[in-house]
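Dear Dr. V.,

Thank you for agreeing to look over these. As mentioned in my earlier message, I'm a first-year student in the group and I'm still getting used to reading structure tokens, so any feedback on how I've presented them would be very welcome. I ran two proteins. I've put each sequence directly above its structure. The first is here:
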Amino acid sequence: MSSAGLGEPFEFHTFLAPGRGPAYDDFHRAIPADLDAVMRAAGVMAWRIYRNDLILTHQVVALDRQHMDEILDRDPVNQRWQQEVAPYLVDTPATDIGDDPGDLVWDFSWPTR
């Protein structure tokens, strides 16, 4: 993912519940259009999610990460999305995080639903 020298790239991980990988992939293949709009308004320039078994690697580029977090944390569209995705996730990793992010599951440039 290239930010072309613009924005602030960062990476973080979330973790899938055992047995939820394929269902998560299907669910997350395209995000709702209203969430896409909120993310863009918050300054998200790029966001990719890779899955390696139960480990999700999020690679993000935002104009300003702190501003993005503040906007998304209080936005009702994002809050609804977080509730929808929560059943797929667990708080603690099932395995150690390795160097291989796995297969691309979702890209911010993909169509919305």
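The second protein is here, in the same arrangement:
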Amino acid sequence: MPVYAVNYDLQRPDAYDGFYDILESVPHVSVMDGFWLLETEGDAGALRDRLKGQVHQEDAVFVMHVDEDWAGAGTRCGAWLNAEERRAR
């Protein structure tokens, strides 16, 4: 199943429960503040549209497909990306 990087910058202190509900509704890892990896069907545009519907107009959301060529340091994503149970799906 595809993995998408979701980056966001939420400007207003209002509740964003619907936004985080979408992030948490699929296999995921919070990599760092404002950056998550999600495993979900569909394409980047569809995921962006779902998330954008839960934030304010002045907020920013960026979604990108993650391929096998990645590198990280000091994050929690390496173990999640390399987990056998996730890769077997």
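From my reading of the second output: The helical segments are 17-24, 44-52, 77-82, 84-87. DSSP finds four helices and four strands in the chain. Does that match how you would interpret it?

Kind regards,
E.
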